[in-house]
Amino acid sequence: MNGRDVVLQAVRRALADVPGDETPTNGFPGTHDRRAVGTGADVVELFMERAADYRATVVRVPVTGAAAAVGYALRRTGAGALVVPPGLPEDLVPEGPWSVLTDVPPLTVGQLDATDAVVTTAAAAIALTGTIVLDGGPGQGRRALTLLPDQHICVVRADRIAPDVPEALRLLAPYRPLTLVSGPSATSDIELDRVEGVHGPRTLDIVVVEDE
Amino acid sequence: MSGADNVVWLGSPAFPEAARGALNDTRMRANLRRATGTIRDRRLAVTAELDDWEELRHRAAEIKRRTLRHLDGHLLRLEEAVTAAGGTVHWAADAAEANRIVTRLVKATGESEVVKVKSMATQEIGLNEALAEAGIRAYETDLAELIVQLGGDRPSHILVPAIHRGRSEIREIFRREMGEWGRPAPEDLTDDPRDLAEAARLHLRERFLRAKVAVSGANFAAADTGTVVVVESEGNGRMCLTLPQTLITVMGIEKVLPSFVDLEVFLQLLPRSSTGERMNPYTSMWTGVTKDDGPQEFHLVLLDNGRTATLAEEVGRQALSCIRCSACLNVCPVYERTGGHAYGSVYPGPIGAVLTPQLVGVENAASLPFASTLCGACYDACPVKINIPEVLVHLRAKTVEAKRRDRLLPTSEALAMKAASAVLSSPRRLSAAQRLAALGARLVARDGRIGPLPGPLARWTATRDTPAPPRESLRAWWRRTRDEGRTTVEGDGR
């Protein structure tokens, strides 16, 4: 008997008390009620406040001001080399004293490690927790892109900000690799003192853009 | 590592003995008191923010209990979904089998080192030691696990394994050990947490960049989509889950959830319960393999290792709902004073006291069901409403039962209970005993409290102060005042 049969048989033996006519779903709520952040709450404002709580830098600009906001964030850290994922709208990348690499063909981890910053879009965001969600779609790139550079600048469309976790999950495709990011990398392992920047990006800049 | 499990640390003393040593370690107690106090306050603040917190707990408990009752079906669906998404599923009945599978998978890649995401399951099976025996070096990459590994130490908390260490101790460990494992700590390393975290970043970065194989655990897995979830803070998890070519995930069979949408409940509960945050900095979810993004080979090892034995316990089964948030540790008065090592198990604290004896059999962890005051704080804090006191009492009964079976002579508990029953069943004997106790107790008490006593009472009194009984028992007082009262009433009435 292989491990699979051994485990499955042991599970079935252990569940002898479960009535035979009970199914995994009968009498069981299949979907969950959605929470809503009190009506009238400004979801964008809440998102900005909560993301800032996680020590992300957050600004809100009209779509036409996005490139300038990205440029401002890059100048603030003095970034010299920038990587952009395929599919990122060209007008999000400002002119400046930085070099721009595109991840086509894919860069090596060494090359990525040598860049200072990455600019991406996001698949969704969550207001209540101040979280951005990346799903590897156009403008977001593969996961390594937002991991190795020390600064991540994320341009989030205001209409992609969901009020809470349940609403956000409904906007996502489970078959894509998903990364939920709430502030910069952080640890609390030393006397529970929070320290930002361990292995992921030490700086997270979020630019919320709205149509005018 | 040869035994069937690593859940219980071999050679660890029983809890009362280990606790005595821990109680004398004032530095550890101070570290723990500060840490658990901080995290308790944070958790209360963020759970109060959600007006449906209790409803979420209820729902989580319901999903978990229901899932466990049909675990076989969910596991089969998970296997099917992961396989369809390009992953490979393996089944391991015990620790030895899981270690064999992982070792074989690593060897097949031709590599001799792996990077690891912090995982209770791999701690439980002693994977690092098993890999070392096969000539494979496993590097822990979570900061706290790194501190434990470099210090040749054992974890003392589910979430913050180095919670018992202060910053100056961590600095010493880094300065002494980092060079042995890779990039040494900087010469001018201070004990500022910022400085220490930076040293860990530099030490581990080169390792992440060259790693070809990673090993992780899993917080959740959705049976309908095959999506596996790891939550973390530092980004070391993302490094391991993203950069290597091969990813091997070892997951307890109880971690499966019926569907992807169920994650909405647990992603709200887990960070708030564990670190007291609205959300942990990083959550990674992956489904099989994705072309040109992340590992191109994914193995999921489904681990039993005592879980089906726990599942067979109708009362104790609920312990398998645990999402390893460690909220119960942080509110436990016993844990706060003894620390995690005293439990002698990978799973310390209240949840450890119920999980460990069930995973390894009560006879192998007989002192743990008693390592609790049954105050119930753990039950109140548990995001999935595991009734830990109920399971503890159930396990205590089983322990006594097991002892009775194994011994020809009655146990000391049995003798004490027999004596107590003889005294309590006779009013005359009781009041005689009370008079005697009051007299004797006042002789040994200091400031109204009775400290350690010699002889047969030593085991009880060594670990607790008992208030000295009053000069007079209630029965004696009643007889005296009632009789006096009657006299007075009669006197006044006439």
Task: Give a brief outline of the structure.
With 212 residues, chain A is of the alpha/beta class. Helix content of chain A is 22%, strand content 24%.
What does this 3D model show about the protein?
The complex is a heterodimer of chains A (212) and B (494). Chain A is built from five helices and twelve strands. Chain A has helices at 3-14, 43-53, 66-77, 109-113, 165-170, and strands at residues 57-62, 81-84, 99-102, 117-121, 124-126, 131-134, 151-157, 161-162, 178-181, 186-187, 195-196, 203-210. In chain A, the strands form three sheets. A six-stranded parallel sheet of chain A has the order 1-12-7-4-2-3, with helices on both faces. In chain A, a hairpin with a 4-residue loop joins strand 5 and strand 6 (131-134). The mean pLDDT of chain A is 92. Chain B is an alpha/beta fold and 494 residues long. Chain B has helices spanning 15-23, 26-47, 53-69, 71-84, 95-108, 120-125, 127-133, 143-150, 167-181, 193-210, 236-242, 263-274, 307-311, 327-331, 333-338, 349-360, 377-381, 388-406, 412-424, 427-444, 458-461, 474-493; strands spanning 88-92, 113-116, 137-140, 213-216, 220-222, 227-232, 246-252, 256-257, 282-287, 297-303, 449-450, 466-467. Mean pLDDT of chain B is 91; it is low at 490-494. At the A-B interface, helix 1, helix 4, helix 5, strand 9 and strand 10 of A face helix 2, helix 3, helix 4, strand 1 and helix 8 of B. Strand 9 of chain A pairs antiparallel with strand 9 of chain B.
